[in-house]
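Example for tutorial group B:
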């Protein structure tokens, strides 16, 4: 499969190149030159296949010959090491739990898959490549865990100081080894801008080859399709059409779901649920794409004002706003609404949601109220224990603390502090 840059459709590269480069030299995101189709026969008999084979069949056309079958099998087996259960919450409403992985947020799948691909592509190189990544919270931990001890790969993670949860911070600052955390005095959007500047800096790249592990990287973005395929596999027997609500920040996850739908997965409608960083809901409302400065919320992994992957969603619909609106609805919710939903769902259904999942739940309920007659799934993207400090007090004592978390609390944070200034980042990268 070839991938072209969204800035210049004439510029195209292989999967391998797209993974190694992350972003195209002209700052465009890479987009597949063709959208493969799921065969009807395969789609209708998903329950006869095992998840590893399904995953391979779905992603293989996006990779082509760049990774041999046996290697791809290994990468997928090392990625899908935990379940993605569909948990009934209330009538016609299910939570797709994506938090059973090593860092307890859905980004584990993309991070491990990408680490496998990059490790394979770099297997004969002596010069290490640096994975440079900005995190609004969960990417950092997932990438640190996914790439920890991968030979030939160094990882540098930028995170906004004081704007990630304590546990998220521990997950990205305590591994050591080939993982370094840079603590930036600024917002996630500052971190993301610094990373983008670094990619465009030829002098820096000549000295220290860089790649990205944000969802702008196709190897992190595309495997997220698996969740939707697995959810559909579970829900196939439902009589009603399925709608899926995705708590969205940088819009990588929902964009992967919409890609699966473009391949032929029968999802009736998508709902993008955001917190008050609501650039996309406003855009779908009035047609103007106008990012405001990012605002800190309790669903911090979604505090993104200018979501990179939205450009991919627009491309999927050939910039046709009308077609896009027929498949996608977006709503925004405040922290107060989010907390109220967490409390209500726990009280009425004894189901504990994290703040991100709660935003997804709210989006689903709002859509289903206005468009009755569907079965709804919302993505529960993180384990509630990751956000203990921001949980309503009434719920804190209900959160069970998984083993992975208990183990982290005793570890020492190690970070390099830095201003939100690209020149400082460059100097540090050139020297260390
Ligand atoms: C990253 C993240 C999101 C947002 O996902 P995007 O792909 O950036 O839209 C939602 N919830 C959690 C818990 C996350 O870590």
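The residue assignment follows.
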């Amino acid at each position: 499969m070839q991938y072209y840059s969204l800035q210049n459709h004439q510029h195209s590269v292989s999967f391998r190149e797209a993974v190694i480069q992350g972003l195209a030299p002209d700052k465009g995101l890479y987009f597949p030159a063709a959208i493969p189709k799921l065969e009807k026969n395969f789609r209708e008999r998903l329950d006869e296949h095992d998840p590893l084979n399904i995953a391979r069949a779905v992603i293989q056309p996006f990779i082509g010959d760049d990774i041999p079958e046996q290697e791809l099998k290994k990468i997928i087996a090392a990625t899908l090491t935990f379940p993605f259960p569909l948990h009934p919450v209330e009538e016609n409403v299910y939570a797709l739990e994506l938090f059973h992985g090593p860092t307890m947020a859905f980004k584990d799948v993309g991070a491990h898959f990408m680490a496998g691909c990059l490790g394979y592509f770099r297997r004969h190189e002596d010069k290490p490549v640096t994975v440079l990544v900005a995190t609004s919270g969960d990417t950092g931990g997932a990438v640190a865990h996914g790439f920890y001890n991968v030979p030939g790969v160094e990882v540098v993670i930028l995170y906004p100081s004081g704007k990630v949860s304590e546990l998220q911070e521990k997950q990205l600052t305590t591994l050591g080894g080939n993982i370094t955390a840079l603590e930036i005095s600024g917002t996630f959007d500052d971190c993301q801008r610094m990373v983008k500047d670094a990619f465009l800096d030829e002098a820096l790249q000549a000295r220290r080859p860089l790649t990205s592990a944000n969802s702008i990287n196709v190897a992190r973005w595309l495997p997220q399709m698996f969740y939707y395929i697995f959810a559909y596999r579970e829900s196939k027997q439902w009589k009603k059409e399925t709608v899926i609500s995705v708590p969205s920040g940088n819009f990588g996850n929902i964009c992967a779901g919409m890609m699966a739908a473009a391949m032929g997965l029968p999802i009736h409608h998508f709902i993008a649920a955001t917190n008050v960083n609501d650039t996309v809901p406003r855009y779908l409302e009035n047609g103007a794409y106008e990012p405001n400065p990012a605002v800190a919320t309790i669903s911090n992994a979604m505090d993104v004002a200018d979501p990179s992957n939205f450009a991919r969603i627009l491309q999927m619909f050939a910039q046709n706003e009308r077609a896009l609106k027929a498949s996608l609805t977006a709503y925004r919710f405040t922290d107060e609404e989010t907390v109220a939903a967490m409390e209500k769902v726990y009280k009425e259904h004894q189901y504990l949601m994290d703040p991100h999942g709660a935003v997804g739940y709210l989006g689903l309920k709002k859509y289903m109220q206005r468009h009755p007659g569907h079965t709804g799934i919302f993505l529960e993207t993180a384990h509630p224990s990751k956000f203990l400090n921001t949980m309503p007090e009434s719920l804190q004592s209900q959160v069970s603390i998984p083993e992975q978390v208990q183990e982290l609390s005793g570890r020492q944070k190690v970070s390099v502090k830095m201003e939100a200034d690209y020149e400082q980042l460059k100097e540090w990268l050139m020297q260390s």
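The chain is about 45% helix and 15% strand. Compare this with the pattern of hydrophobic and polar residues in the output above.
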